[in-house]
Amino acid sequence: MKILWKARMPPTSLQFYEFANFRLSLTQKVLLRDGKPVPLTPKVFDTLVLFLENEGRLLEKNELLLRIWQDHFVDEGNLASNIKVLRRALGDDAGKPRFIETVPRRGYRFIAEVRTSVENNSSNGGRARAFPQPEGQNFVDLFRRFLLPGVCIFILGMTLLGFWFAMRNFQRPVAPVLSGPFSAEKLSTNGKVLSAVISPDGKNVFYTDKSGDNKQSVWLRQLESAVNVQIIPPTDDIYYGLALSPDGNFLYFVRRPKSFEGQGDIYRVSIFGGIPVKIVSETQGSVDVSADGEKIAFRRCYYRDDDFCSLWMADALDGKNEIKLASRPRPIRIGDSRFSPDGRSVAFTVGQSENAATEFGLAEVDVASGAEHFLTAQKFFDIKHFAWLPDGGGLFLTASQIPNKSFRIWQVSRATGEAQPLTNDSESYSVMSLDKTASRLISTQVKQDFHLQLFDLDNLAVTKVVADATQVTFAPNGKIIYSSWMTGNDEIWSVNLDGSGKQQLTNNAADDRFPVVSADNNYVFFSSNRTGESHIWRMNMDGSDQIQITHKDGGFPFSVSADGKRVYYHHGLSRTLWRVSTAGGDEQLVYGKKENYFGISPDGEQVAFFDDQRDRKALSIMRINDKSIVKSYYLPNGNAKVSEIAWLPDGTGIAYILARPDVENNSLWVQSFDSLTPKLLTELGGEEINSLAFSPDRNHFAIAQGGWRHDAVLITGLK
Asked: For the chain, what percentages of helix, strand and coil (3-state, to nearest 5) are there?
């Protein structure tokens, strides 16, 4: 059923809305705070007008969506983002609102007192002013009676002619890929194409491929003949972004050695082959070349508190004349960047998704002045890549918006800031590259492929894949509780050791992950971003009675105290150690140093983590009540990276997984407290491991292991 509202007729005189120290002009479409303009995008302005027109009345979400976006289909994420931007502009706090009150699961209400003021459309404060009658009044009357109609007809004719030309040009889309029906042709099926870029003429695709021996190489594919030619032979290096010079003759890319943990370097090579030349050191992610071929844009991330990530520009030929264009403090991350078609600015993605919040945006910096602004008020969970349309009037981007975890292809208008999804299939897209006419688009489709593997500790050769899973834990009664993406987003499930009795415990459009179970087997605690950022929730073992128990920054739980009174969790932003009452509301900092992995002892008195001691990585055990280090053990391999940690159920030792990226191998080690050195338990192969847990009887352990599949697709229509 379509709902219609009777629109208010615009007043014949200027009308203003006033509230607190704000004044909004309907005719000038401007909001003033203490007489100074407050910048608002058109949709945010329209949202505020709706609130002011309906002061004190609850506006349902559906009503807001229909009235603001009218015939355009958008989800509630757009509305939530609009409200968030508006609150920020007004200096409002969602927790203690002065202006916009949230009515859970229903909508919003404007709660401040609103006043209206009316002034006549004159420069005299609304008072009529008499003007003396000029000489030559007869001529004026003659002009009004005979000449004015002809002038009006001429102006009307020219306007209609201009409108006809505008419509004619409008009907010729600047992006032909938008005018055809959706069509996607797979260019790879091995799941190992991590990056791809299309040539300016749309005839070739350059891509990276991971061969059977896990070495990466760079290839050229001729789209018409489907012939593939290797440009750079396989090496142990890891490749990131690819970019082409405007003439299509040179390929730029970022790569680093597999065993090196730092940032990569930018290289330049002819598309006909040859030795790549390094032109810029210490960069990360993608690289882009300006339309005139003179400059490159790239980013550096040193992850410092004052300069977490920064955006840079340099000469494209040799990397000289570096200039820092923008930077952000922790935890704000700068991602993909692209020169505008005229070369005057660089657009870049910026934000944070550490706590699974929708706080990633698309900004632009002026190369000459350094001035920055956001290209759209729309915020996302994350933006992978984007590309400018040839005329600079908009962009395509691949982005995810909570609660939809899939990365869709979106279009953003530069003029209005409107963001609209172009794809609604189940695929998740990452890489984004357009040819110079925007007739063809190259992207990569990404799928996660992680499995719950169960090992018998008495016979480690006996393994069993129980389910698709991203995290796993054991309940005290021996059941396995895990999160799985099999429904399209992470949900919490339970299953018996033999794979029987599978049961879905949560069903929500957001992600429910990191389950842990209380010692009395009554509750499952988990992380969910259904409120817009990751918080800790509690539910019964059958999935009923789901209750949010953190309300500040939240995070990711990993342990419940033996007495069942506290849940320990990783802070959503700082990755420090926190705990909260299982009843909720009592969030406390336990240990203020950032660590990637924490493990709480079964008795809840000690915490284990990894730190650097004398240039060597060590496993340290700290007493929680006085923060004193009880024991430290050096790891067997200083070059390996720790990927998971778990206390043994009887508290006699700690198990952890070491990953060696240079040889792509994971190994499980156990550090017993009655020994000075750890013991290798088993090798676990080269695939990524997300989770490790031991059964209460110590007869089994489980891991969530797998990886991500990336395949290139050629898209020729997005209609």
From this structure: 10, 45, 45
Provide CB contacts within 8 A for 315, sequence distance 6+. 294, 295, 296, 321
Asked if the structure places residue 65 within a domain, the reply is yes
- Residue 417's pLDDT is 93
User: CA 313 to CA 1: how far, in whole Å?
Assistant: 53
Please tell me the distance from the alpha carbon of residue 466 to that of residue 484, in angstroms, as a whole number. Answer: 12
More confident residue, 29 or 402: 29
1 lies in a domain? no
What confidence tier does 33 reach under pLDDT thresholds 50, 70, 90?
very high
SS3 assignment, position 160? helix
Question: Average per-residue pLDDT in the chain?
Answer: 87
Find the Cα–Cα–Cα–Cα dihedral 162, 166, 169, 171, rounded to 10°: -130
Q: What average pLDDT score do residues 343-367 get?
A: 91
**Which residue among 594, 617, 640 closes a domain?**
594
| Residue 443 β-bridge partners | 432, 713
**What is the residue whose two structure tokens read 């688009």?**
441
- Of 574, 576, 572, 625, the C-alpha closest to 597 is 576
Q: Does residue 65 sit in helix, strand or coil?
A: helix
Q: Count Cβ atoms below 10 Å from residue 419 Cβ, excluding itself.
A: 25
Two tokens, residue 247: 């003439």
Tokens found for residue 166 = 């505008």
Using the Cα atoms of residue 33, residue 38, residue 44 and residue 50 in order, give the sign of their dihedral.
positive
Question: Residue 583: which domain range?
Answer: 459-594
The amino acid occupying position 323 is: I
**Claim to verify: residue 249 and residue 355 sit in the same structural domain:** yes
Residues 69 and 216 in one domain: no
163-167 own/partner pairs: CB under 8 Å, 24+ apart: none
Whether residue 11 has pLDDT greater than 50: no
Asked, for residue 532, whether it belongs to a domain, the answer is yes
- Give how many domains the chain has, as a whole number: 5
Over 669-716, what HEC string results? Answer: EEEECCCCCCEEEEEEECCEEEEEEECCCCCEEEEEEEEEEEEEEEEE
Output the domain CATH number for residue 553: 2.120.10.30
Instruction: Assign residue 96 the CATH number of its domain.
Output: 1.10.10.10
CA-based end-to-end distance of the chain: 26
How many Cα atoms are found within 13 Å in the side-chain-facing hemisphere of 615?
A: 0
Q: Rounded to whole angstroms, how far apart are CA atoms 667 and 676?
A: 19
CA torsion 309→315→316→320, rounded to 10°?
-80
Tokens 């004349």 belong to 321
- φ/ψ of residue 326, rounded to 5: -160, 155
**Helical pair 42-53 and 61-69, crossing angle rounded to 10 deg:** 130
CA 302, CA 327: separation in Å to the nearest integer? 11
Which ranges of 501-635 does DSSP label H, i.e. alpha helix? none
pTM value is: 0.72
Q: How is residue 596 written in tokens?
A: 């990637």
